[in-house]
Amino acid sequence: MLDKNGIAKRIAKEVRDGFYVNLGIGIPTLVANFVRSDIHVEFQSENGVLGMGPFPFEGEEDADIINAGKQTITTLPGASFFDSALSFSMIRGQHVDLTILGAMEVAENGDIANWKIPGKMVKGMGGAMDLVASAENIIVAMTHTNKAGESKLLKRCTLPLTGVGCVKKIVTNLAVLEVVEGGFKLLERAPGVSVETIAEATEGNLIIEGDIPEMVI
Amino acid sequence: MIPKTVGGPAEALDGVKDGMTLMLGGFGLCGIPENAIAELVRLGVKDLTCISNNAGVDDFGLGLLLQKHQIKKMISSYVGENDEFERQMLSGELEVELTPQGTLAEKCRAAQAGFPAFYTPAGFGTEVAEGKETREFNGKMYVLEYAYKADFSFVKAWKGDEAGNLIFKGTARNFNPCMCGAAKITVAEVEELLPAGSLDPNEIHIPGIFVQRIFKGEKYEKRIEQRTVRTRN
């Protein structure tokens, strides 16, 4: 089973040379730490920066330079700042190559829910609805089950949706899965995790074809 | 040069009344019009509708207006990190319209640019699209969203000149440029207010035509929400 860094490490392998990537809050943010250093990648944050770098050294933080998680950040050579409308032109106009975000639920038809638990938590969708409605290439980073042990990979989402039919790939602590016609196609197992364990933790239809390889991280 | 300079926040906010719709720039606490917010608190205007990506934190930003129950309705994309906000929302004291961030930005920009409405894919098939017109373009579904109509727009820039030209700094730019000229009156507050001719016209982000009043903010606290740093090895 993978921890948060493990999930981020596996997703980092999906990042290709020349990609502009938007990272969501939480596990997705960690992906930046594991991207190969021999490829050229720029990270976009929807509050208005392209070419995000690591956190600043202590004492060098600037209140005017933050990411979408409101964390202080730095910029790398080639970076740029822009306004919110232009930022979402990059996203809506499909200029961003890859979007990595977290989720509370994903359904086998590619629906995603990650912004609201009725009666419990309403923080808002932020940029998530724009991101999932527009991106061609969306990877969801999440745990396979919630804190109550219930599957987050469902036949149908039960929570209010963020977007419909948009998720293509999911990386969890147990597996890598692809959303295909008819369900979640199992692509890889996390180290030491059996197909049976993954099947048990998946409520939606799990498609298993042939031998399922273990992830190489 | 058409002069836009006003004496200070009191003059800049002249005409702000109960029940008005206001746009306020900023993302989280970054790039918020701190001095205009302080003046709104001082004026005590109430029943406001505020269009702002976030609602501040309990004791700063728009949280200061929430504390005084000056806001009737909040239009935002993300409202976490604010207990008083959550309390007022759950108790029904505060009306909240959650809007996808890109849609919020574009509803401002549309108002600025003279578009009455636009289609966006964001929110299609979700509760955000309920009751809204939808339409298919090239096999994909879109939701019709309308431009905002606001009375005042309060923005914060880094540098500005007497002609109302503005330059923003870092990610403090965010919603500020989109809100300039998107309301009947745009009030810009700046850290540095310079004579006309001091700024290179090539480097101006927002031309003064979009700004009616400009003043130098007395002070900026620039509070950081998440101070994240790395240590030197």
- Low-pLDDT residue intervals, each spanning 5 or more residues of chain B: none
Q: Describe the biggest sheet of chain B?
A: 8 strands, mixed
The 3D shape of chain A can be described as globular
List the secondary-structure elements of chain B in sequence, H or E.
HEHEHEHEHEEEEEHEE
Highest CATH level, the class of the domain at 4-28 and 94-207 in chain A: Alpha Beta
Rg over alpha carbons of chain B = 18 Å
Helix content of chain A: 10-25%
The spatial strand order of the largest sheet of chain A comes to 4-3-2-1-5-10-12-13-14-15
Uncertain segments of chain A: none
Written overview of the protein:
Chain B: InterPro entries: 3-oxoacid_CoA-transf_A (IPR012792), CoA_trans_fam_I (IPR004165), CoA_transf_BS (IPR004163), NagB/RpiA_transferase-like (IPR037171). The complex is a heterodimer of chains A (217) and B (233). With 217 residues, chain A is of the alpha/beta class. Chain A has a domain at 4-28 and 94-207: 3-Layer(aba) Sandwich (Glutaconate Coenzyme A-transferase). Chain A has five helices and 15 strands. Chain A has helices at 4-12, 27-30, 84-92, 128-134, 195-200, and strands at residues 20-23, 42-45, 49-52, 75-81, 98-101, 105-107, 112-113, 116-117, 121-122, 138-141, 153-154, 169-171, 175-180, 183-189, 206-207. The longest helix of chain A has 9 residues, at 4-12. Chain A is globular, with a radius of gyration of 17 Å. In chain A, 48% of the residues are buried. Chain B starts with 8 loop residues before the first helix and ends in a 17-residue tail after the last strand. In chain B, the strands form two sheets. In chain B, strands 1, 2, 3, 4, 8, 9, 10 and 11 form an eight-stranded mixed β-sheet that branches. A three-stranded antiparallel β-sheet of chain B has the order 5-7-6. Chain B has helices at residues 9-12, 34-43, 63-67, 83-90, 101-113, 176-179, and strands at 21-24, 48-51, 71-76, 95-98, 117-120, 134-137, 140-146, 150-161, 166-167, 183-194, 213-216. The model of chain B has no long low-confidence stretch (mean pLDDT 97). The radius of gyration of chain B is 18 Å and the shape is globular. Chain B contains six helices and eleven strands. Chain B is α/β, with parallel strands linked by helices and 233 residues long. At the A-B interface, helix 3 and helix 4 of A face helix 5 and helix 6 of B.
